[in-house]
């Protein structure tokens, strides 16, 4: 079992994500309103918020595909404004939409994504064998990904996001459409990655999943309204579960 | 570079595993060129005709022999009464009847003119028109021979007055147009669809989060279509040469270079379309309505530009296909070199640069 408070022991200078006053405006509308937070190495950081609270916009700024209007952020030690390409080399990303190629086989998908991250042919081969074995996909390795059940695709998608051993992996509602068993297995994979010192930055709608995170931030209307360990948040809001915390915040 | 090759490999997987793209890429060009070459043609071959000869003299016999000797007509039957004309048509046995007036030779010598009635089955107006033209041509040819050493010309008067244009080989006109359409279709429509597909599936986002630069992604998506378009251009030229015996008078290298230029113009348009459309459907509609229709209607492919109203003539100038068709016709049919088409080439080049610049500007490097 993972020790949830491990981050507190080595918090000095161990921030893989540092955000200060990060803001994104679309015209007059402030999608992300001066958010400030840190994420520690190896941490599972839950990034919560209702639909339209600004989560996805915030993530897009952090992964270097959207420029902030103002504020500062560094990811994996690189500035989002000046070095987005260095960031891209050091992060993995999995979006809420399943994003492997359906018309490519499992192996071809792995090879392709390994390739665009610049892995050597030998490394891709090793990775691909290990990954297929780990996910138990030996029998379907040469089948088109489109023919696999969604749960398998989702797990494969996560593994592919980790293929280049990124320092941080961003998961945008990764468990959106999968069954509870797959969700469970998915979180086991997340824990495993975190244990290997990969920082996990995850957004979710499921409040039970929020309980699995080391720390959780809750965004309301573009602002971060709460940020702490699930346990402390429950204390602070005198709530039974994260669900209650969320409801109390979201309803204002 | 290795990343890039991997990317292109993946792109080819997409193309070869999608029956729809495969059909558009390879079925369509061949189907279109054969269709335009054979089916939609103004030419006729071995058309059955009947002859009603009221004179039965030397001149009519000579004319009949001339017609019979041409590969365009075969004489199915000789009829003897006017009343038979209707019945042979009704039976559908012949497409045309030639009716020589009485005393044809005598009239020709005495009055220096004689009349043939050319009656055609106009249920198929195009064919009827063509048959008339061809018969006129044969008659004129004969007349010319007849008048070689005679001072007062003999005139054979066919009742139709259209003038035959011996240069009108329809397939020669269609090949440049079809080639233009196909290159446009493959390059612009297919690339715009394949780029928007990645947007639609969400994989574009993944690619943009990867260390690949946006322009690498776009070039990676475009390069396979350059290859395939070049192959298509070669196939079309081969088909034209070997099946339709169309001569390519000019330099094949020049033809190839101009084609590559036009392919790049179309690809730039395809990228431009993909930047303004969110779904594959939109991309396809824009390509079809925005590119194909103008190419078919305004490029001079089917309707001559010179006979369009002035506003359309002016609009036709901004259609890249117009210039490419002029270039193709000049190289293929007239066999001219660069010195005669540098202006058109320059215009096309200018358009290409403009479209590339515009699509680079429009291409949203950062997904908003």
The total strand number of chain A stands at 10
The largest β sheet of chain A comes out as: 6 strands, mixed
Total count of helical runs of at least 4 residues of chain A = 9
- Average pLDDT for all residues of chain A: 88
Task: Report on this structure.
The complex is a heterodimer of chains A (252) and B (368). Chain A has 252 residues and is α/β, with parallel strands linked by helices. Chain A is built from 9 helices and 10 strands. A 6-stranded mixed β-sheet of chain A has the order 6-7-8-3-9-10, sandwiched between helices. In chain A, strands 2-1-4-5 form a 4-stranded antiparallel β-sheet, with helices on one face. In chain A, α3 packs across α4. The longest helix of chain A is centred in the last third of the chain and has 16 residues. The N terminus of chain A is likely disordered. Chain B folds into 2 domains: 220 residues, no CATH class; 100 residues, abc type-2 transporter like fold (3-Layer(aba) Sandwich), CATH 3.40.1710.10. Chain B has a 5-stranded mixed β-sheet, sandwiched between helices. The radius of gyration of chain B is 27 Å and the shape is elongated. Chain B starts with a helix and ends in a 6-residue tail after the last helix.
């Amino acid at each position: 079992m993972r020790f949830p408070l491990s981050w507190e022991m080595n918090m000095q200078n161990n921030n893989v994500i540092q955000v200060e006053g990060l803001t994104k405006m679309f015209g007059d509308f402030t999608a992300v309103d001066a958010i400030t937070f840190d994420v520690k190495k190896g941490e599972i950081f839950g990034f919560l918020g209702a639909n339209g609270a600004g989560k996805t916009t915030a993530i897009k700024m952090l992964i270097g595909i959207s420029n902030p209007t103002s504020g500062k952020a560094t990811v994996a030690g690189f500035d989002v404004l000046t070095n987005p390409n260095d960031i891209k080399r050091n992060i993995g990303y999995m979006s809420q939409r399943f994003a492997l190629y359906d018309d490519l086989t499992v192996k071809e998908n792995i090879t392709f994504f390994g390739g665009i991250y610049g892995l050597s042919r030998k490394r891709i081969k090793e990775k691909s064998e290990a990954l297929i074995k780990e996910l138990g996909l030996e029998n379907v390795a040469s089948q088109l990904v489109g023919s696999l059940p969604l749960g398998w695709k989702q797990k494969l998608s996560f593994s592919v996001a980790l293929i280049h051993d990124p320092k941080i992996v961003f998961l945008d509602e990764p468990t959106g459409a999968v069954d509870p068993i797959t969700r469970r297995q998915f979180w086991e994979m997340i824990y495993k990655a975190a244990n290997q010192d990969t920082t996990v930055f995850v957004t979710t709608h499921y409040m039970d999943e929020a309980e699995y995170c080391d720390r959780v931030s809750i965004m309301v209307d573009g602002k971060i309204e709460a940020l702490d360990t699930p346990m402390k948040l429950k204390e602070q809001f005198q709530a039974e579960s994260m669900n209650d915390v969320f409801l109390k915040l979201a309803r204002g | 570079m290795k990343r890039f090759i991997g990317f292109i490999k993946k792109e080819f997987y997409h193309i070869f595993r999608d029956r729809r793209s495969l059909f558009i890429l390879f079925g369509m060009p061949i189907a279109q060129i054969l269709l335009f070459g054979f089916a939609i043609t103004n030419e006729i071959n071995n058309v059955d005709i009947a002859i009603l000869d009221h004179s039965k003299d030397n001149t009519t016999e000579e004319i009949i022999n001339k017609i019979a000797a041409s590969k365009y007509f075969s004489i199915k039957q000789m009829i003897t009464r006017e009343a038979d004309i209707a019945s042979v048509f009704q039976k559908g046995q012949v497409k045309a009847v030639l009716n020589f007036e009485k005393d044809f030779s005598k009239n020709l010598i005495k009055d220096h003119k004689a009349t043939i009635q050319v009656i055609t089955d106009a249920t198929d107006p195009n064919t009827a028109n063509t048959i008339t033209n061809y018969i006129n041509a044969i008659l004129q040819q004969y007349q010319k021979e007849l008048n070689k050493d005679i001072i007062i010309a003999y005139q054979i008067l066919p009742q139709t007055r259209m003038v035959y244009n011996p240069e009108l080989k329809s397939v020669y006109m269609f090949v440049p147009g079809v080639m233009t359409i196909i290159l446009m279709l493959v390059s612009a429509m297919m690339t715009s669809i394949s780029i928007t597909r990645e947007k639609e599936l969400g994989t574009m986002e993944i690619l943009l989060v990867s260390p690949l630069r946006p322009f690498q992604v776009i070039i990676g998506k475009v390069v396979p279509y350059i290859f395939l378009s070049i192959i298509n251009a070669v196939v079309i030229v081969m088909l034209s040469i070997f099946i339709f015996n169309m001569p390519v008078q000019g330099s094949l290298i020049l033809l190839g270079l101009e084609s590559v230029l036009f392919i790049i113009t179309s690809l730039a348009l395809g990228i431009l379309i993909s930047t303004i459309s969110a779904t594959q459907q939109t991309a396809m509609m824009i390509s079809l309505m925005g590119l194909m229709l103008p190419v078919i209607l305004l490029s001079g492919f089917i309707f001559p530009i010179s006979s369009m109203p002035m506003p359309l003539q002016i609009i036709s100038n901004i259609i890249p296909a117009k210039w490419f068709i002029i270039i193709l016709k000049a190289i293929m049919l007239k066999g001219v070199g660069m010195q005669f088409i540098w202006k058109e080439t320059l215009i096309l080049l200018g358009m290409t640069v403009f479209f590339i610049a515009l699509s680079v500007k429009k291409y949203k490097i950062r997904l908003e």
